Amino acid sequence: MLSKSSGLALTFVLVAALLVGVYASGTFASVLAASGCPEILTDPMAIVALAAITVVSLALGGQPLMIMGAATVTAFIILTLNQDILIRYLTLAAVLFSIGMYGMVVSRNAVRVLMSIELMLNAVNINLVAFARYIDPVYVRGQLFAIFILTVAAAEAAVGLAIVLAIYRNMSTVDMEKFNLLKW
């Protein structure tokens, strides 16, 4: 049996999926056009509808992480549905970078922080490859930088995990709040 917050979160996911379906089919734009709304406001109105559904779901006590995750995916789909492919890549990179930044700032677990840094570096790689493909498709400068970043990220992960393992052996925890080895 689902709890009340899980049920609200699941309802939100279904309503958000319905909103994306209505938006993708063009029904949303035709309803707005029939009400006298200009076509240029179709995307902002869809985002406002999504924001209203999100606020109501959160106010009623839904699970915040599940609702915000579904809202992010839905907003990504709505904002990139009718856009150029470069905009889709850049939006995906921005979403990944934001998730990585959130994980790095909020998490107290050292391994999770390392994973969040890797996610942010991969978002940068997506930007580099996308710009290299669409601005300068003959040369492979963006791909070369992305490979360089991947090698640096692999070295960073190896050194970071080695440090985390050494601290775990001494302190029996990977909680970053308890790392005070450099304090006097």
Polypeptide structure, described:
This protein is mainly alpha-helical. It has 2 domains: 1-82, no CATH class; 84-184, Helix Hairpins, CATH 1.10.287. Helix content is 78%, strand content 0%. It contains 7 helices and no strands. It has helices at residues 4-25, 27-34, 42-59, 64-80, 85-106, 110-135, 141-171. Helix 1 (4-25) runs antiparallel to helix 3 (42-59). The model has no long low-confidence stretch (mean pLDDT 80).
Classification by helices and strands: mainly alpha
CATH architecture annotation of the largest domain: Orthogonal Bundle
**Rough outline:** flat
Distance between the termini: 52 Å
Q: Give the C-alpha Rg.
A: 21 Å
CATH topology of the largest domain: Helix Hairpins
Total number of beta strands? 0
Oligomeric category: single chain
Largest sheet: none
Number of domains: 2
Tell me the helix content: over 70%
CATH class of the largest domain: Mainly Alpha
**Poorly predicted runs:** none
Mean pLDDT: 80
SSE run: HHHHHHH
Contiguous helical run count: 7
Strand content: under 5%
List keywords for this structure.
single chain, 184 residues, mainly alpha, Helix Hairpins, 2 domains, 7 helices, 0% strand, flat
Annotate the secondary structure layout.
Layout: H1 4-25, H2 27-34, H3 42-59, H4 64-80, H5 85-106, H6 110-135, H7 141-171
What's a quick, concise take on this entry?
The protein is flat. The protein is built from seven helices and no strands. By secondary structure, the chain is mainly α.
